[in-house]
Design a protein that fits this description.
Blueprint: H1 7-51, H2 59-75, H3 80-96, H4 101-121, H5 126-138, H6 142-155, H7 160-172, H8 179-191, H9 194-206
Helix pairs in contact: 1-2, 1-3, 2-3, 3-4, 3-5, 4-5, 5-6, 5-7, 6-7, 8-9
Length: about 210
């Protein structure tokens, strides 16, 4: 008759089973991430080019990029980067439709929805908060835009795209902007390089704002 297994043997078998389970989970996670990255790769490359002005998007290319990113989001719904790109993709189309309020608000509503998913997964992303601020501005919700800008400057105070977005949005909403954002913009103008000051002056002229440093 076989002897009953000792407690140590049972624990060893349980440990082996746990290690095998963790290894299988790790393999599944890795292939899932790889599949999602491969699915979204071309869309991300295209959007980077469109955003940088290196190429112009067409409606068929835009739809293809959207569909690829949505598929990637289904494969790996916990990847914030996919939702960042979905937000950026909709913002690109919203920008082109800026003078058509209904279309602009429709695309930026989608951009906001995706950006909020990204931020729920990675709330410390300053650039994502800056994109959220732009979305709120496009939807004419200025108080929400100011709140998002504060978060953008909290998490990305030294990131050039964050600072540039904040400068433009603060100047675009200057008459309503709260004192802390006025003070931030004036300090940027006072302490910035000559190129940074020139950029702020150019934006101020566009939005009819007179920069007066105290």
């Amino acid at each position: 008759m076989a002897e009953p297994r000792s407690r140590k043997q049972i624990l060893n078998l349980s440990l082996v089973a746990l290690v095998c389970l963790l290894a299988a989970w790790g393999i599944w996670q890795a292939q899932r991430v790889m599949r999602a990255d491969f699915t979204a790769m071309q869309a991300r490359y295209r959007i980077d080019g469109w955003a940088a002005g290196k190429s112009q998007w067409t409606v068929p290319a835009w739809i293809e990029a959207r569909d690829d990113l949505l598929e990637a989001s289904r494969i790996a719904p916990d990847n914030p980067l996919t939702f960042d790109y979905l937000a950026q993709l909709n913002a690109l189309r919203g920008r082109r439709a800026w003078e058509a309020p209904e279309l602009r608000k429709a695309y930026f509503s989608d951009a906001l929805r995706f950006q909020k998913i990204s931020l729920a997964l990675r709330p410390e992303n300053g650039a994502a908060w800056a994109s959220l601020a732009l979305g709120h501005f496009a939807l004419e919700d200025h108080p929400a835009a100011f709140g998002a800008l504060r978060q953008a400057l909290r998490y990305g105070p030294y990131e050039v795209p964050v600072k540039q977005m904040a400068e433009e949005l603060v100047l675009a909403m200057w008459a309503e902007a709260p004192a802390d954002l006025h003070a931030w913009l004036l300090q940027r103008h006072r302490d910035g390089t000559s190129d940074e000051k020139a950029d702020i002056d150019r934006l101020a002229k566009r939005y009819g704002v007179r920069i007066q440093e105290g």
